[in-house]
TrEMBL record:
It comes from Alosa alosa. This is Uncharacterized protein.
Amino acid sequence: MLSLPSPPVTPRLILLGERQGNHQKWMVSIESLIVCEGSNLATFLTGIMTCFSTFYILNLQYQEEAACTLEFFQRKRPRRSLRTITNK
């Protein structure tokens, strides 16, 4: 009998589509259960934000293997343009 690894405890973003970069739907899963879905109207960025929000809401720690990468994205903030700063 083939032994499959246990499903990850941490949230995962799943993208569905025919080709890479052309997704029609995204889902966030935890322990093989879909906890949130987005349609083709929702963007990839919305899926990422939902996945990060899930970590925060459920008070989960990042998986050790991915912690540095996820913390980098969490702390990265978009820069305001010079035009926005000077118009204030």
